[in-house]
Amino acid sequence: MIKMLAGLSTIGKAAGLGSARCGAKPDGIREQDSGYHKDTDRSLPHRYGLLGEIAIATICNIPIDENIYKHGDLYDMNEIEVKSSTREGEDIELKVKCTEYGKKHPKIYILVRVNKGVFNRSPDPEEDKKRRTVEVLGFITAEDFSIKKRRKNYGHEDNWIVSKGDLVDATIDKIKTAVL
């Protein structure tokens, strides 16, 4: 696992691009694209996702796709799909929406954990550091994903998932080799 501390400018960039990506989607798509409740900021999944993408881009020294699309991107970068999750604990899973699977053909999927509180500063320095910690947990090739995936519904829509145990453990060298 790779742990990184996201800087304030990185968090700001993820928040800005995530909000812009969410706002560019037509209302019907924006209101149906996640399992978040209506009173929750609909851009949060996009912001978390951008923070994960920025973490991988930083490790590999490659640019992220900063374009804003109405219907999503083809890949996050270099035929890679970065999947960010706020799930705590070892039972975290890499998930791909069933409706998305098959439309994209990445070489690898990478699972990144971000803290739910990352976009809210804490006056306590230790808590603030915890909130800004981003963990790159592992990756899986698209071929292995297609073999190991199983269907799961978290209450909103069907997803293909693999568990953390199905992933290759992330080290900087392994991530760079898989990505570049």
N-to-C series of helices and strands:
EHHHEEEHEHEEEH
Between the first and last Cα atoms, what is the distance in angstroms?
19 Å
Domain module count? 1
Structural class: alpha+beta
Query: What is the general shape?
Result: globular
What is the multimeric organization of the chains shown? single chain
What is the mean pLDDT?
Answer: 86
Number of strands: 8
Tell me the major beta sheet.
Answer: 5 strands, mixed
Structure, explained:
- There is one protein chain.
- The chain is α+β, with helices and mostly antiparallel strands and 180 residues long.
- It has one domain (2-179).
- 34% of the residues lie in helices and 24% in strands.
- It has six helices and eight strands.
- It has helices at 8-24, 27-32, 44-60, 125-131, 142-148, 172-179; strands at residues 2-5, 80-85, 93-97, 108-114, 133-141, 150-153, 158-163, 168-169.
- The strands form two sheets. Strands 1, 2, 4, 5 and 8 form a five-stranded mixed beta sheet that branches. A three-stranded antiparallel beta sheet has the order 3-7-6, with no helix packed on it.
- α1 packs across α3.
- The chain starts with a strand and ends with a helix.
Topology:
Layout: E1 2-5, H1 8-24, H2 27-32, H3 44-60, E2 80-85, E3 93-97, E4 108-114, H4 125-131, E5 133-141, H5 142-148, E6 150-153, E7 158-163, E8 168-169, H6 172-179
Parallel strand pairs: 2-4
Antiparallel strand pairs: 1-5, 3-7, 4-5, 5-8, 6-7
Helix pairs in contact: 1-3
